[in-house]
Input
Amino acid sequence: MSEENKLIVLYGTETGNSELLSMDICKAAEDAGMEAVAFGMDEIESEDMLSYSRLLIVCSTWGDGEQPDNAMDLFEYAEELGDGDLANMSFSVLALGDTAFDLFCEAGKEWDRVLEEKGGTRIAERMDCDVDYEDDAEEWIEEVVGALQAL
Ligand SMILES: Cc1cc2nc3c(=O)[nH]c(=O)nc-3n(C[C@H](O)[C@H](O)[C@H](O)COP(=O)(O)O)c2cc1C
Output
């Protein structure tokens, strides 16, 4: 299978929650017959993101509404893309955060906004998860895998 139809899951994380969820997502996608890969956002060359047509972002928020360290460069790259550069991309975002912070899930919200601005197609609504994220994440994974199968 070419990378064109392969699912890529990119995670932005500081303490590993998003990484663990990315593994769950890959497993669910593979169980549904898809080919899936997961990388930390600093583990791929930024422009390689463009060779995929199916992208899932799992990203926590740090500092005061900021991207995790490993997400900074890729996010900057995505922000600088031209409108329409992601016209062939289907995406969805799983945002991790903590409602105790004013800027709840801000980094995930930014990804969701930028991917749409650059022409991507949102295949499932973003899920904003609080500290007990397991049930919401599971619900989102189920919805997203269904949406991917329907593409
Ligand atoms: C120092 C610190 C700052 C944080 N800042 C925010 C924030 O601004 N907004 C938010 O929604 N969550 C914030 N969080 C919560 C994390 O996003 C949340 O714990 C998440 O599950 C971490 O996922 P990760 O392990 O993938 O990084 C913060 C947590 C810590 C410890």
